[in-house]
C-alpha cells in the first residue's frame, strides 16, 4: 500500500472524475433513455393500430429496423452503466484503501474492462449502420428509387462504417494492455480513426437529411408548377420535421467530439449512441402525428396532390386519383382518361422520412 498518489493517476482520482462525470453522465443518459422508451412505445402503438396500406414490405422493414435500434440502444445503456459503475467502484476503492497498484492494473490491463469497452464501441458502430440503412432506404424511395442517388450513399456509408469497425478492433487491442508501447500506439491510431469516423458519420447523416428535405421541397415546387395544389403549411411541417429531427444525430456527434476535448462534467458519447435510435423514431412519430392532426381538421390524413387540368377542346377529361401507401405517406398517381386516347399519367411520389 502506498500513501503517495502516483503522478499518472492524479487525473483519475479528482472529484470531477470520481463523482461528477459518472453521476451527471448516467443521470442524463437515463433521462434520455426514458424519453426513448416513451417514443418507441408510442411508435409501436401507432404502427400496430394504424393503417399500414398496401406496402407491407416497407412497413415490416421500418418496424424491424426500429426494434433493432431500440434493442441495440438498450444494450448500450446496460454496457455503459456497467462501465461507469465499475470505474467508480475501482476509483472509490483505490481512494479508500490507498492501493494505487490496483488502479494501475485496472487502467492498463483488465480483461473485463476490455470486454465492456469492445461491446460498447461495437454497439455504437452497429447503431450507426442500422440508422444509415434506414435513412438511405427512405432517401432512395423519395428519390423515385434512383440508383444514382442510393449507390454513392451506400458506398460512402460502407467505407465509413468499415473505418468504424477497424477503429473498434484497434482500440480494443490497445486497451487490452496499454502498458505495452505497441498496444498504446494501436490505441492512438484507433482514437484518430474514431474522430474521423464520427466526423464522417455526421457528414453522411447531414447529407441524407438535406437530400430528403430538399427532395420534398423540390417536389412541392414541381407540383405547383404543373397546376397541382398542396397544403403549403403541411409540406412545410414535413420539411421542418425532417430537418429538425434528422439533424439530431449528426449534431450530437459533433457536440460529442467538442465535449470530449474539453473539461466537461459529463460525457456525450452515450447521448450520441441513443440519438442514433431516437432520431429516426422521432421523425416517424412526428410525421404520423402530423397526419393525424391534418386528418382531424381536413379529413385528409395524407399528403395529396390534386390536379386542376383544363378540359380539352375535343374531349372532356376526368381526373382519377389512386392512392398507394409507401412507408408513412402516400404516392398519389393521377390518371387522365381522354376518350379513346391512350391513358396518360402524371405521378407525384412522396415517401415519409
Task: Please describe what this structure looks like.
Strands 3-4-5 form a 3-stranded antiparallel β-sheet, with no helix packed on it. Strands 1-2 form a two-stranded antiparallel ribbon. The chain folds into 2 domains: 292 residues, Rhopdopsin 7-helix transmembrane proteins, CATH 1.20.1070; 44 residues. The chain is built from 9 helices and 5 strands; from the N terminus they run ααααααβαααββββ. It is mainly alpha-helical. Keywords: Membrane, Transmembrane, Transmembrane helix.
Q: What Rg do the Cα atoms give?
A: 26 Å
Order of helices and strands: HHHHHHEHHHEEEE
What would you call the shape?
elongated
Number of domains: 2
What is the topology?
Elements: H1 15-49, H2 56-97, H3 100-108, H4 111-142, H5 147-176, H6 181-225, E1 228-229, H7 232-246, H8 248-260, H9 269-298, E2 306-307, E3 318-326, E4 329-337, E5 344-349
Antiparallel strand pairs: 1-2, 3-4, 4-5
Helix pairs in contact: 1-2, 1-9, 2-3, 2-4, 2-9, 4-5, 4-6, 4-9, 5-6, 6-7, 6-8, 7-9, 8-9
Jot down its keywords.
transmembrane, mainly alpha, Rhopdopsin 7-helix transmembrane proteins, transmembrane helix, two-stranded antiparallel sheet, 71% helix, 3-stranded antiparallel β-sheet, elongated
Amino acid at each position: 500500500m502506498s500513501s503517495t498518489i502516483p503522478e499518472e493517476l492524479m487525473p483519475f482520482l479528482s472529484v470531477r472524475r470520481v463523482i461528477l462525470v459518472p453521476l451527471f453522465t448516467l443521470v442524463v443518459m437515463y433521462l434520455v433513455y426514458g424519453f426513448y422508451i416513451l417514443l418507441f412505445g408510442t411508435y409501436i402503438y401507432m404502427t400496430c393500430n394504424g393503417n399500414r396500406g398496401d406496402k407491407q414490405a416497407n412497413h415490416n422493414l421500418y418496424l424491424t429496423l426500429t426494434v433493432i435500434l431500440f434493442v441495440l440502444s438498450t444494450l448500450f445503456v446496460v454496457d455503459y452503466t456497467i462501465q461507469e459503475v465499475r470505474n467508480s467502484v475501482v476509483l472509490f476503492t483505490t481512494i479508500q484503501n490507498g492501493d494505487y497498484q490496483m488502479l494501475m492494473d485496472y487502467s492498463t490491463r483488465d480483461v473485463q474492462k476490455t470486454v465492456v469497452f469492445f461491446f460498447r464501441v461495437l454497439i455504437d458502430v452497429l447503431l450507426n449502420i442500422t440508422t444509415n440503412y434506414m435513412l438511405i432506404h427512405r432517401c432512395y424511395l423519395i428519390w423515385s428509387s434512383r440508383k444514382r442517388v442510393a449507390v454513392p450513399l451506400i458506398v460512402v456509408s460502407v467505407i465509413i462504417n468499415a473505418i468504424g469497425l477497424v477503429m473498434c478492433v484497434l482500440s480494443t487491442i490497445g486497451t487490452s494492455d496499454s502498458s505495452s508501447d505497441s498496444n498504446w500506439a494501436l490505441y492512438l491510431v484507433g482514437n484518430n480513426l474514431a474522430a474521423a469516423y464520427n466526423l464522417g458519420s455526421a457528414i453522411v447523416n447531414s447529407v441524407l437529411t438535406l437530400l430528403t428535405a430538399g427532395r420534398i421541397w423540390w417536389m412541392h415546387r414541381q407540383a405547383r408548377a404543373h397546376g397541382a395544389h398542396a397544403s403549403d403549411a403541411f409540406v412545410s411541417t414535413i420539411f421542418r420535421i425532417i430537418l429538425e429531427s434528422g439533424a439530431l444525430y449528426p449534431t450530437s456527434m459533433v457536440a460529442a467530439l467538442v465535449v470530449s476535448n474539453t473539461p466537461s462534467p459529463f460525457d456525450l458519447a452515450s447521448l450520441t449512441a441513443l440519438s442514433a435510435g431516437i432520431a429516426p423514431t422521432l421523425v416517424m412519430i412526428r410525421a404520423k402525428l402530423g397526419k393525424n392532426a391534418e386528418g382531424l381538421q381536413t379529413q385528409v390524413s395524407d399528403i395529396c396532390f390534386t390536379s386542376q387540368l383544363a378540359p380539352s377542346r375535343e374531349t372532356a377529361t376526368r381526373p382519377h386519383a389512386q392512392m398507394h401507401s409507401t412507408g408513412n405517406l402516400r404516392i398519389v398517381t393521377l390518371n387522365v382518361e381522354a376518350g379513346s386516347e391512350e391513358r396518360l399519367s402524371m405521378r407525384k411520389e412522396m415517401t415519409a422520412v
